[in-house]
């Protein structure tokens, strides 16, 4: 997660690992979410990085069709 801004493919990897993975729902991802939000706010509105970060946030907030309210 530290180098997610340097290596754009890292966000794709993290997204695929966490996507619909019930085991990871119990992890405390608050720190990661904060980092993703901060990094996405720094990206330009029209950049592809901003869209990539927002898609990554979706992984931490949703499991299949259910929203995860504790995150």
Quaternary form:
single chain
In helices, the fraction of residues equals 40-55%
User: Number of helical segments?
Assistant: 3
Distance between the termini: 18 Å
DSSP, total strands: 2
In terms of structural class, how would the helical and strand content be classed? mainly alpha
Number of domains: 1
| Overall pLDDT level | 77
- Percentage of β-strand residues: 5-15%
Give the overall form.
globular
Verbal overview:
With 71 residues, the chain is mainly α. It has one domain. Helix content is 54%, strand content 6%. It is built from three helices and two strands. A two-stranded antiparallel sheet has the order 1-2. A hairpin with a 2-residue loop joins strand 1 (62-63) and strand 2 (66-67). Helix 1 runs parallel beside helix 3 (48-61) and helix 2 (30-42) runs antiparallel to helix 3. The longest helix has 14 residues, at 48-61. The radius of gyration is 12 Å and the shape is globular. The protein starts with 7 loop residues before the first helix and ends with a strand. The mean pLDDT is 77.
